[in-house]
Amino acid sequence: MPREVVVEDLWWRYAGGDWILKGINFTVDEGEFLVVVGPNDSGKTTLARSLNGLIPHSVRGDFKGRVLVSDMDTLKQGIGGVSTKVGMVFDDPEAQFILTKVEDEVAFGPMNLGLSPEETEKRIMWALQVTRLEGQIFKEPADLSGGQKQRAAISATLAMRPEILVLDEPTSMLDPIGKAEVMSVLRDLKEKQDITIIVFEHHLDELVEMADRFMLLYKGEILREDKTRDFFSDPSFLYEKGVRVPEVCLISEKLERDGIFDKVYLTLSQASRSLSKHLKERPSIAPAEKEAREFETLGDEIIRVEGLHYRYPDGTIALRGIDLTIRRGEFIAFIGQNGSGKTTLSKTLNGLLRPTKGRVSVFGMDTTKVSTVELAQRVGYTFQNPDHQLFKGSVKEELEFGLDNLSRIGKLDPTEKKGRISEAMKTAGISEGLLEEHPYMLSKGLRQRVAIASIIAMKPDVLIIDEPTTGQDMSQSIEVMRFLDGLNKLGHTLIVVTHEMWVVANWTKRTVAMLNGEILLDGPTREVFSRPDELMKTFVQPPQIARLAQDLKNYGYPPVVVTVDEFYESTKELLR
Amino acid sequence: MQRTFLSYIPVDSIFMKVSASTKLSFFFLFNFYPFFISNPLLNFLSGIIAFLLTLRARVNLRTISKYYKLFLTLAFIIFVSSAFFGESLAGPSREVIVRLGPINVYKGAMAFGLEAYSRVFALVCGMLFWLAITTGTELFAALEKLRIGYNLRISIVMIFRYFSVFDGDYHVIREAEKSRALDLSTIPIYKRPLHFAYYLVPLVMLVIKRALETGAAMESRAFKGTKLYKGMISKGKETYLTKKYYRLERVDVLAIISMIAILAVILVGRFYFGWAWFMNPFY
Fold first, then answer.
1. B34 preceded by cis ω (within 30°)?
2. Which of A204, A327, A551, B147 is deepest in the core (most CB within 10 A)?
3. How many Å lie between the alpha carbon of B277 and the closest alpha carbon of chain A?
4. Which CATH architecture has domain A330-352+376-555?
5. Banded pLDDT at A521 (limits 50, 70, 90)
6. Architecture of domain A3-245
7. Buried b (16+ CB within 10 A) or exposed e, A401-415
8. Euclidean distance between CA atoms A177 and A169, whole angstroms
9. Is the whole model's pTM more than 0.80, yes or no?
């Protein structure tokens, strides 16, 4: 097979920095589908941008080695020239739109290539057909869902007819529906179009079924590179290196070690088929009572929502008659697709939004009669993007910010500040050495922790965190969730708004699933995940391991298995 | 509905039928006019006409009402400060209209304040009208036809394209401040400027990040154009966007000629003939 991409001894460092890429060597054949995985800061984005010439042409730094794409040397060719061979899709669908209509956006690239209006129009229609966006052709990008926006970005790139398509974390900012849409497009591209695909991603559940090869990038070096099946032969190793290994692979490894499986399976259907050969049909074994016991130990009611409606100034009805009670010490997940009302609901709990109709009372206070500042002391809120909530020039000042505001209005004795900051730093794992650093010089994960710590310093009883794991790799996500779990054990009531079902399954005790501004399901997490048909209405799927258990429910698996360890324990019991 | 820079207009709005170049000439007329006219009455009239055209276009006013409030409030502050506290604007006559305690309200200062406010009023109404009826692609096509340089063209479009995104960021930042017990609406107005810096840090950082990301996306799509594209423009050939958005009907030609004529009359009348009714009669 002719080689489409050849990377030879590639080294790169940004101006004034350390080497990010350290002697990278790999090739990609024509028509191949390669997935590059690795923790954050491993160099994935840097490598992606080296493939289309952004590095070294748009960024200052030191470049060594060679990158050839379709025999074109990216160092000698300008980005415009390379863009005729390599198309690139970025992680933020919003930041990739230049013009204000899908059709025009897709036309932008071909137009820059100097194509005639007629040829441009043909390419637009073809690209939109490939991504199944013909129906959205006249829509504005701002009126599209996240998945549609990303598909539009893929169309805009495909319209340039590149031979190689590079996608840098294309699903990281999307909800489950959006992720599924993008994966579906990639599947179609692989099967029906003659194009080489290189995807840099954390979410691998669907990619294991599509990709020909995987590559692990770790601290700027290629640690492993193999065909898909062989790459996942040692899931624990990959997991330790921060790869978000599909749960099916993790459980397969455990069962392979026990001699039940003969290999590590990559897909749910493979694992299900193999396991069913070892089991007999029988009724379900009793589910764990752990969650029921935990519910019994919860405290008094602290938040009550009654008949809550909310309508935005532009007329959008976001909440339709929500009734909800939250007790002290709970750890709750709000789930649902984008636009379901999760974030709107969470913002009514700390007074950022006031009910259009209905009532929200927080610690007995009606939120319409109390100021947001007053509520901020009881209910802390951190936003999805930490960059929206960092105001000062150093971490120390950032941690002091909220406390200074409380002191100014007489709600905090200034002598308490130092102690609170020290406590918040310890809880959030922020070292003294970071205190004088500018928050924006920190990694995204650390910025998120600084933002959370600055809220914790205010000692709210309730903490609402919007998407705590977005943009984080596996290790960082686990670290953040363990930290939040620690807060919950210290007595904080936590609400997380999230799209990550494995986070919900492993840490939260109660799940509220929303659809079109209403609560569809509300109960212990396991109970919610045991109702997949209803959950599907919210376009949310239970974690992969839960789906495997449900697939095997006729063989005795309890309906409430949601983690790999639970599945493993259930399997051992069933095989006894 | 068709989304524009700042709002939405129905697809059957009369201004959807107007070409990109006609819309661009609206911009020049409504935004240059107040610089040459110092008569507050004419400026107020210009602003009212722009507002009436906004209504005629059936713009979704709910999405832009906040901009009217914001900019006209700022303009009112300018009026008050110059009219009531602008002793240096009193003029040689120093005629006092009224005394408010220790404050002398001078006729000259009041006239100046009124003039300043009327110019801002006209500018704001004109600008909001243009932003409410124009899309980014139309502006791009119009500038392309005028052979404005590619970098400048795309920069202008991006400024307007990201205005509403910037606005969205500002609102989230405000919410984040409230979550940290800082609500500017509860702070005395004279103390608020001290806290404005807290907006700037995250806004600037977000703008820089977005600029880098969008720049990377544009470069990946042959931004700046290939030689073939540049050749097309220099030879006056149609590109996909100019073919689609730059259709000049008879009404467009008439509209553009009329607006050029109005601007020409203003310039000649103001600077050559010195027509009095372009000047401020309240001095």
1. no
2. A204
3. 42
4. 3-Layer(aba) Sandwich (3.40)
5. very high
6. 3-Layer(aba) Sandwich (3.40)
7. bbbbbbbebeebeee
8. 16
9. yes
pLDDT of B59 above 90: no
A14 within 8 A of A54, measured Cβ to Cβ: no
Nearest CA in chain B to A379: B179
Using a CB-CB cut-off of 8 Å, the residues of chain A touching B223 are: 80, 112
Q: Which residues of B are less than 8 Å from A107 in CB distance?
A: 240-241
Contacts of B161 in chain A (CB under 8 A): 97-100
B209 contacts on A by Cβ (under 8 Å): 387
Rounded to the nearest angstrom, the gap between the alpha carbon of residue B148 and the centroid of all alpha carbons in its chain is: 20
Q: How far apart are CA A474 and CA A482, in angstroms?
A: 12
Residues whose CB falls within 8 Å of the CB of residue A5, separated by 6 or more in sequence, listed in order: A26, A27, A28, A51, A67, A68, A69, A164, A196, A198
**Min CA distance, A278 vs chain B (Å)?**
51
> Do the chains contact at B222 and A94, CB–CB below 8 Å?
no
Helices (H), B162-196: 163-179
> pLDDT per residue over A85-128, tens digit each?
999 999 988 888 888 789 989 999 998 888 999 999 999 999 99
Quickly list DSSP for A1-41.
--EEEEEEEEEEEETTS-EEEEEEEEEEETT-EEEEE--TT
Listed by number, the residues of chain A in 411-450 with a beta carbon closer than 8 Å to a beta carbon of chain B are: 411, 440
Contact A114 B227 (CB under 8 A): yes
- Residue ranges of domains in chain A: 3-245, 252-286+565-575, 330-352+376-555
Token pair of B95 as six digits: 């005629």
Interchain proximity A160–B221, CB inside 8 Å: yes
Residue type, A550: Q
- Residue spans per domain, chain B: 1-134+249-283
How many other β-carbons are positioned within 10 Å of the β-carbon of residue B140?
Answer: 29
Nearest-Cα distance to chain B for A484, in Å, is: 18
Kindly tell me if the per-residue pLDDT of A154 is higher than 90: yes
Cβ within 8 Å, pair A380-B201: no
CA atoms within 13 A on the CB side of B282: 20
Sequence-distant (6+) residues with CB within 8 A of A115 are: A123, B228, B240
Number of helices (H), then strands (E), belonging to chain A: the values are 24, 20
Strand B96-100 with A33-37, pairing: unpaired
| CB nearest B3 (choices: A117, A142, A391) | A142
User: What residues have CB less than 8 Å from B69, skipping those under 6 apart?
Assistant: none
Chain A's closest residue to B199, CA to CA, is A391
Report yes or no: B53 and B46 within 8 Å, Cβ to Cβ: no
Distance from CA of B208 to the nearest CA of A (A): 11
Q: How far is A96 from chain B (nearest CA, A)?
A: 5
Contact B213 A113 (CB under 8 A): no
Interface contact B165-A377, CB threshold 8 A: no
CB A271, CB A249: distance < 8 Å: no
What residues of A are in contact with residue B231 (Cβ under 8 Å)?
Answer: 114
A10, A25 Cβ separation under 8 angstroms: yes
- Looking at A411-425, A433-447, A457-471, B82-96, which range is the least confident one? B82-96
Residue in the block written with tokens 């495997």: A548
Burial class (CB in 10 A: 0-12, 13-18, 19+), A284: middle
Mean predicted lDDT score pLDDT of chain A: 90
Measured between CA atoms, the residue of chain B closest to residue A397 is B198
**Alpha-carbon distance B139 to B6, whole Å?**
13
d(CA B34, CA B112): 14
**A504 pLDDT above the threshold of 80:** yes
Per-residue tokens: A520: 């569809």
